[in-house]
Amino acid sequence: MENVSTADSLAYEKLSFERFRDEVLKDYRIACESREASLLGRKEVLTGKAKFGIFGDGKEVAQIAVAKFFQPGDFLSGYYRDQTLAFASGQATMEEFFSQLYADPDSANEPHSSGRQMNSHFATAMIDEHGDWLDIANRKNIAAGMAPTAAQMPRSLGFALASKLFRHSAALQDLTDLSNNGNEVCFCTIGDASTSEGHFWETINAAGVLQVPLAIFVWDDGYGISVPREYQTVKGSISEALKGMQIGDETNGVEIYKLKAWDYAGMCEVFETAIQRIRDSHIPALFHIEEVTQPQGHSTSGSHERYKSAERLEWEREWDANKKMREWILSNALASEDELDEIEVQSKTFVRQSRHTAWEKFSAPIKEQVNRSVALLDEIISRGIHENKLKNIAGTLKSNREPQRKDVLKALHTAGLIIGDSPVAENLNTFYKELLQEGYNFYSTHLYDESSKKISNVSATSLEYSDDASLLNGFEILNRYFDQLFKSNSKVLAFGEDVGKIGDVNQGFAGLQSKYGEHRIFDTGIRELTIVGQAIGLAMRGLRPIAEIQYLDYILYGLQPLSDDAASLQWRTKGRQSSPLIIRTRGHRLEGIWHSGSPMGLMIHSLRGFHVCVPRNMVQAAGMYNTLLMGNDPAIVVESLNGYRLKEKLPENLLSYRVPLGVPEIIREGSDVSIVSYGSVLRIIQEAAEILEEMNIDCEIIDIQTLLPFDIRETILSSLKKTNRIVFIDEDVPGGAAGYMFNNVMEEQGGYRWLDVAPRTITGKAHRPSYGSDGDYFSKPNTEEIVDVIRQMMAE
Ligand SMILES: Cc1ncc(C[n+]2csc(CCOP(=O)(O)OP(=O)(O)O)c2C)c(N)n1
Ligand SMILES: [Mg+2]
Fold first, then answer.
1. Ligand lying closest to the C-alpha of residue 152
2. In what order do the strands lie in the sheet with 214-219?
């Protein structure tokens, strides 16, 4: 017996040794492949086959160690150095890597961004073609990468916070496709220099306060492009700088680890327990990975010899993590030199083949377009039409060794100009149009959700009032609405400054936290950037956050992630990911510079990809929230700050009332002049219209309701056809949102054809709104000004 069990245990030991060895060699292979991808990738750029390249060389071993503990359900929210993590976790193939480098727009070849993003910007599918969330609790998820440094930080907080809410909120317990009891960790990677950004500090502070499962990996190669860490970080070390954040026995905070990028065994050992601890306890951690090298320098745009000393370059060669891993394998007798040489040779072959296949797939359809164009040109040439010129065009196109789609289009366009309006050009023109359409499909779709959940599919409903409908203050209407909403939709959450305990500064959520719990309606620190980040992450994890920015003026603090991340997410993943957050805020008019801003031009230009809703009252706002919650796009709702204490009739169907987006409402019919506006200033316009009525001037007032989308049924044009006079009024600066509305109606809708007099805009002044009632009067459009402009228009 004893002998048998000894034999068993020996066999077991052998087996587990074999397994360990196999795993180490598999890891070494990934490290070699990833390195080869970086080396070949750079060559592709230098030889002109790709435009720009940024690679993960130097971080292979560390990322392989991390990937071992990246589990289904987890999120990676990283940056452009994550290629090895993507390979090792099986979320990107080598071919896809090269397809993205070539900017292949075919989603079948390059699913991460469909050629819309630079290389190493990965994204996994999170929603299906119907706009429904996939079972992300069972998938390894990569949130679409971004180039702005530290832009990944704010949303990482949201990914991690979602786990906490899924674990603790009773309302979310059934959503097992989205979370497995909140066990998901958000893996966030960042470069050492990018920790200089405020984004990093705000996120780490919030994570330490909230206690959420966030694992931050700082790849410290000592440089941000050319600027060394001494200029970036206090004490030249992020882990030293963060010591005060270290969690203690009696305090909250963050666990801090220091590791070496070349120490494969050491990293595997620490990550195993540390990441499990994050998963179990939801205590965030920062892993300061030191002694990272960057063998090829920052990117293909420069050479690191310009800023690294000869000693540094020598040190980097010596401490190259792949080299150290090889040495470690040999010194532990896990493989022979020959075996490792073979892995290296096979890796090179594999990467070369993948590159070749990716290039073939990328270039084949373009070559086909070239051939087709040349055939079409030859056909015309054979009829003796513009022979020489067309031969020239065909010849140039044929001899182009690496043609792009634009070369084909340029050739066809030039030929079209030469041939002119002739029936012989028909096939050529048809093909040209096909290619334009293909270009649109490749590059311009999915700014908004295009699934069956797209917002234009949401049907509108009308308001219903009982005979004895009560008159309530605007804030009370919203309070009733949110109460019903939270009762009916368990995915809805609301948070922001003063939103939890007191139910927001205007009491929209008053009393609702005690009713629905602290995991559904909650306070945050004063940190608009990460309030937005929370919203982005929560929304991407399938929840429906309503994030409050206390006043519209403060949205500037959170604008970067709204613009760079949320607004572009659908587009930059071609519909694979979506972040249907709602920013609830209030603005337009109250007191002073920072509570009366109406920077709507700024919003609509930086937030293409959002719906921008500007309700004039709170019933209308509720109708907008209902519509937005049925779609998958992000949105901002700017409530009228001076509307919370105005009386409104309480409808019977607050929860089912849906305002259609992009459909203006005519709130006063008239025949002399069309006044186009929105939000708070409408009340001033109504006052002006009453004065003008006394003078027999009949104003039509149009509330556009939403700036994005804008008047999709051309309601304004119909009004203009009747009145032949138009004025656009808002509280933004001159040329801001009024300029946008003007452009839409005049150019897009062709409104200029229906004008009897010059069109006008009346806006706020270019300066900030001044304090006090007179300050407001002289800074924003006022009744008298509106009356005078319209009288002038009538006199022309
Ligand atoms: C907001 C912003 N500023 C500047 C840049 C240009 N830029 C790209 S990478 C980079 C340096 C980043 O260094 P680090 O965070 O250490 O990452 P590494 O590239 O060294 O891995 C800079 C300045 C940018 N992408 N975004
Ligand atoms: Mg760096």
1. 1
2. 141-142, 75-77, 186-191, 214-219, 285-290, 255-260
Q: How far apart are CA 351 and CA 613, in angstroms?
A: 49
For strand 699-703 and strand 673-677, is the pairing parallel, antiparallel, or unpaired?
A: parallel
Q: Which helix (H) or strand (E) holds 729?
A: strand 726-729
Of all ligands present, the nearest one to the C-alpha of 52 is: 1
- For the CA of 150, the closest atom of ligand 1 is 1
Section 566-587 average pLDDT: 97
- 219 CA closest ligand 1 atom index: 21
Nearest CA to ligand 1 atom 12: 224
Report d(CA 765, CA 15) in Å as an integer: 78
193 C-alpha to ligand 1 centroid (Å): 7
CB 664 within 8 A of CB 690: no
User: Ligand 1 atom closest to Cα of 197?
Assistant: 1
Q: Rounded to 5 degrees, what are φ and ψ at 630?
A: -90, -15
Beta carbons of 62 and 219 less than 8 angstroms apart: yes
Shortest-distance ligand to the CA of residue 301? 1
- The span from the CA of 111 to the CA of 96, in Å, is 7
- Dihedral sign computed on CA atoms, order 86, 87, 92, 97: positive
Q: pLDDT averaged over the chain?
A: 97
Distance (angstroms) between ligand 1 centre and the Cα of 446 equals 28
CA distance 548 to 782: 29
Contact by Cβ (8 Å): 542, 176: no
Predicted pLDDT at 13 = 83
Residue 562 has pLDDT above 70, yes or no: yes
The encoded tokens of residue 697 equal 């001037």
Q: From the CA atom positions of the chain, what is the Rg in Å? A: 30
Indicate which residue of 121, 519, 595, 611 is catalytic.
595
Binding-site residues, ligand 1, Cβ < 6 A: 81, 147-149, 191-194, 219, 221, 223-225, 298
- The answer to whether the beta carbons of residues 92 and 122 sit under 8 Å apart is yes
Of ligand 1's listed atoms, the one at least distance from the Cα of 190 is: 15
Among 57, 84, 197, 225, say which to mutate for ligand 1: greatest number of ligand atoms within 8 Å of CB.
225
Rounded Cα distance between 432 and 348, Å, is 41
For 648, the 3-state DSSP assignment is strand
Q: Which of 83, 190, 194 for mutating ligand 1's site (highest number of atoms within 8 Å of CB)?
A: 194
What tens digit of pLDDT does each residue of 762-779 get? 999 999 999 999 999 999
Q: Which string of DSSP letters, residue by residue, matches 134-187?
A: --GGGS-EEPPP-SSTTTHHHHHHHHHHHHHHHHH-GGGTT-TTT-STT---EE
* Amino acid letter for position 126: M
Residue 782 per-residue DSSP state: -
Give pLDDT, residue 4. 58
Distance CA 191, CA 199 (A): 13
Q: Which two tokens stand for residue 254?
A: 């963050």
What tokens does 459 get?
């049907």
* DSSP state, residue 467: T
Q: How confident is the model at residue 3 (pLDDT cuts 50, 70, 90)?
A: low
CB neighbour list of residue 174: distance below 8 Å, 6 or more residues apart: none
Q: 684: helix, coil or strand?
A: helix
Is residue 595 part of the annotated active site? The answer reads yes
Between the two ends of the chain, the Cα-to-Cα distance in Å is 112
